[in-house]
Amino acid sequence: MQDIQIGIIGGAGGMGGVFADLFRQEGYTVHVSGRKSGPDIPTMAEMCQVVIVSVPIGITCEIIEQIGPHMKKDALLMDLTSLKTGPIKAMLQSSPSEVIGLHPLFGPGVDAIAGNTVVLCPARAERWSEWVRNILTKHGATVVETTPERHDELMALVQALNHLNSITMGMILKEWGGDLAELIKFATPMFNTKLAIIKEIFTNNPRLYAEIITLNPHIDKILDLYGRTLSDVETLIKERDAGGFAALMEKRGMWRT
């Protein structure tokens, strides 16, 4: 399958760039298109056996619906977004090709995928699934396979809740209005780690994190749990009930038996 040509929509940088480099290392010809460069969508589908959509979450389904009808039946259409239910549904409905959803559980700043995890959601992939898996594992990635529905349910915790917690803390620090430089002088190692995460979220790509949270189909359940838990904790704190707070942690904490 070495004569395969691969097209990456949004492959000029970010995660698309990571996978462009990966496939080039394998000896494949990789075509990259951006907003103002590279082949147009019909041309990309015509000349490539594999097309990967790597664009912001909010426009992923729109791009999929544009390229889907142009895909060949024996080709492969994939996406790299942080949510899987919507994009995979769009790929299945708009294209006759095989369909696989990928979610790299790391950022585009990595030097290589070795030692990192990639989620694999094969939806219609009799021919291509093993090809994708073999390339990922060859380069040292851990491949975890699941359904798009289960992926999004878990990402509501792994990403949405996690980022929501950091974003909330960042907003509180802003509203607090004190001297951040002074605060850092008193920081513990754990607090410094948290600050680094918050800084990355607010200075890197706020829209990405906002879409990861707001577009997850399971976020309403997480928000309900978050609100009820915070309310329970708030009551005990305002009553200065350390014993009750500790008892609540004993009862409902993740690692308590």
In short:
With 257 residues, this protein is an alpha/beta fold. Helices cover 55% and strands 14% of the residues. It is built from eleven helices and seven strands.
Description:
With 257 residues, the chain is an alpha/beta fold. The mean pLDDT is 95. Helix 6 packs across helix 8. It folds into 2 domains: 5-146, NAD(P)-binding Rossmann-like Domain (Rossmann fold), CATH 3.40.50; 151-252, 6-phosphogluconate dehydrogenase C-terminal fold (Orthogonal Bundle), CATH 1.10.3660. The protein contains 11 helices and 7 strands. The protein has a 7-stranded mixed β-sheet with strand order 2-1-3-4-5-6-7, with helices on both faces. Helix 5 links the parallel strand 6 (117-124) and strand 7 (142-145).
Q: How do the helices and strands line up, and which of them pair or pack?
A:
Layout: E1 5-9, H1 14-25, E2 29-33, H2 41-47, E3 50-53, H3 57-67, E4 76-79, H4 85-94, E5 98-104, E6 117-124, H5 129-138, E7 142-145, H6 148-176, H7 180-185, H8 189-204, H9 206-214, H10 219-238, H11 242-252
Parallel strand pairs: 1-2, 1-3, 3-4, 4-5, 6-7
Antiparallel strand pairs: 5-6
Biggest sheet strand order reads: 2-1-3-4-5-6-7
User: pLDDT below 50 for ≥5 consecutive residues: which ranges?
Assistant: none
Distance between the termini: 52 Å
Radius of gyration: 21 Å
**Which range best describes the helical content: under 10%, 10-25%, 25-40%, 40-55%, 55-70% or over 70%?**
40-55%
How confident overall, as mean pLDDT? Answer: 95
Q: Please identify which CATH superfamily of the largest domain we are dealing with.
A: NAD(P)-binding Rossmann-like Domain
The geometry reads as elongated
Within the CATH hierarchy, at the fold level, what is the topology of the largest domain? Rossmann fold
Count of alpha/pi helices: 11
Q: What's the CATH architecture name of the largest domain? A: 3-Layer(aba) Sandwich
Oligomer: single chain
